[in-house]
Design goal:
With 528 residues, this protein is of the alpha+beta class. It has 21 helices and 18 strands. Helix content is 39%, strand content 20%. Strands 6, 14, 15, 17 and 18 form a 5-stranded antiparallel β-sheet that branches.
């Protein structure tokens, strides 16, 4: 058989324009390539190759384009992991504390923006060095091996005990993917951290480093579970600014204001122990008491509670300050001094705003037992009363409420609507939502029925029962608008799973020993 070059020399090309000759030559070369390299011209379809009986290829691997995707990423990761484990071909060594770790410049630079600048930018003194000493905190030294291992494997074990130093290293060396994972972990495991006395450190670190998502989650947990946090040994570790930021909030969940006062007194006692007994520390303590107690809402205490406080040792020691603050509360409860309170309403209006009190005066508990056994579109109805004012001279003003809870969707049956024009058929409708419907039973007086409705949603994380979320609505009840509907109170699909998964499915919204209890609290506070 002659060679391809010999064939080309024996071809006679007719006298045609130059462009036509080029086209003919192009197609001729394609034919040669097809013959001698077993490749097909675009548009040709190869005959199907018979497959052996033992072939394991799937139909997806075999197609008309003769293409196959090869995924060797798992093997590549194994190679990188082996490089790390065997410390082979290392071109840089990092000394951290008393330990030295071999690594590879291209791995460090590809994963960390700081290492990339340090090892590739001539402005850094380390860029040519093969041995670099890094200064780390002791807690970061303990996890540095785990931190570096993530560079090679993409895997890391995060727990409530090591997430803080790992996040600190990820922040310092700008390992963004690891920062995202630590942030996500911390936001989801705050109850577990609080139970293990780490809430203060998480909150303070996120505040300093600007992790707003973690910061907000920590603050919310503190506010919504204030009494639980106050009973931990970590309670004394919250600094003054953080503590004031919390107690200044309207959405603290607490039994009543006197309970909050007692929790604050306990925090002050713990701070006094830390400050010592020197003359300077005593002055600091006096300033601390006044700075913190400014945010206690004495008008929200009953006259009896205010009278009992006069016997408190703390109030006896700081009599001048406390008597002025308590006098505001006594005047609030008496209608004779309403004019004298106007300056306080303007300067310190928060003193007259109820928090999220779980006492019977403002709140009712909504519990559904045996959740998995109730039928679709089931309705649970609760009736309770609440005060429309915290003032003692208005204690007779109350309202009765009806709460209807639809935890498994809302079903409107087909019905007929009779109007003066005739009869209209209203079709059936199903809403896949968790709805809470609140109805004012009384005839609302417009000026007195503007309220804030708060729903406290309980859940479990890491075995810790806590208030997971607070849903708030401000509503003005009138004779024409006596009903408030809150839809999507909980994620419908998270709470309601397929029958085949019940009750195996773990949802954080169900509590109790057998995880079949839905627990809510509704709090209604007047707004004036």
């Amino acid at each position: 058989m002659p060679s391809s070059s010999a064939i080309i020399h024996t071809i006679i090309i007719p006298e045609v324009p130059f462009i036509s000759q080029s086209i003919l030559l192009f197609f001729f070369l394609l034919l040669l390539r097809r013959k001698y390299e077993n490749m097909y011209v675009i548009g040709d379809r190869p005959a199907p190759t018979p497959r052996s009986a033992c072939s394991s290829s799937s139909d997806d691997d075999y197609n008309d384009n003769c293409q196959i995707t090869i995924d060797n990423s798992e093997n590549i990761l194994k190679v990188l992991k082996k490089l790390w484990q065997e410390q082979s071909m290392c071109d840089i060594f990092l000394k951290v504390g008393n330990k030295q770790y071999g690594a590879h410049r291209f791995i460090l630079c590809a994963t960390s923006d700081v290492f990339q600048a340090m090892l590739m930018n001539s402005a850094w003194s380390e860029w040519k060095e093969s041995h670099i000493e890094l200064q780390e905190l002791q807690i970061c030294e303990n996890v540095f091996y785990t931190f570096l291992e993530y560079f090679y494997t993409g895997k890391i074990l995060i727990t409530h005990t090591n997430v803080m130093p790992i996040l600190a290293l990820a922040d310092k060396y700008l390992v963004k993917s690891l920062t995202r994972m630590c942030t996500m972990y911390m936001c989801r495991h705050i109850p577990h951290a609080a139970y293990h006395n780490q809430l203060s450190s998480w909150l303070q670190y996120s505040n300093i480093c600007g992790h707003e998502r973690i910061l907000n989650c920590c603050r919310n947990y503190f506010k919504w579970n204030f009494e639980a946090v106050a009973n931990t040994s970590d309670y004394s570790n919250f600094d003054c600014d953080t503590f004031i930021n919390i107690i200044h909030a309207n959405d603290i969940v607490v039994h009543n204001e006197i309970m909050l006062y007692n929790c604050i007194v306990r925090w002050l006692d713990l701070q006094r122990i830390k400050l010592g007994n020197t003359e300077d520390s005593l002055k600091m303590y006096i300033n601390l008491v006044e700075s913190v107690m400014m945010y206690v809402r004495f008008p929200m205490m009953t006259p009896r509670e205010l009278a009992d406080l006069l016997l408190s040792p703390l109030i006896k020691q700081h009599k001048d300050f406390f008597l002025d603050r308590m006098a505001i509360g006594m005047k609030y409860h008496s209608s004779e001094y309403s004019e004298e309170l106007h300056p306080y309403y303007e300067k310190e209006g928060h003193l007259f705003t109820p928090r999220l009190y779980t006492s019977e005066s403002y709140s009712a508990s909504l519990n559904i037992e045996n959740f998995w056994d109730i039928q679709s579109y089931h309705t649970s109805t609760f009736v309770f009363s609440s005060h429309l004012s915290a003032a003692d001279h208005e204690s007779h003003k109350m309202s009765e409420w009806v709460v209807e809870l639809y935890p498994k969707g809302v079903h409107f049956k087909k019905c007929l609507w009779i109007v003066w024009q005739g009869t209209l058929e209203v079709p059936e409708e199903i809403l896949r939502t968790v709805r809470l419907s609140l109805t004012c039973r009384d005839s609302p007086v417009p000026d007195e029925m503007r309220v804030k409705v708060s729903v406290l949603i309980y859940g479990v994380q890491g075995g810790v029962e806590h208030v997971m979320e607070v849903i708030e609505r401000v509503h003005h009840f009138t004779p024409q608008h006596k009903i408030l509907n809150i839809d999507d109170l909980l994620p419908f699909h998270e709470l309601n799973t397929k029958a085949s998964l019940q009750p195996v499915h773990e949802t954080p919204y169900l509590i109790g020993p057998t995880k079949d209890q839905l627990k809510l609290n509704i709090v209604i506070t007047p707004i004036k």
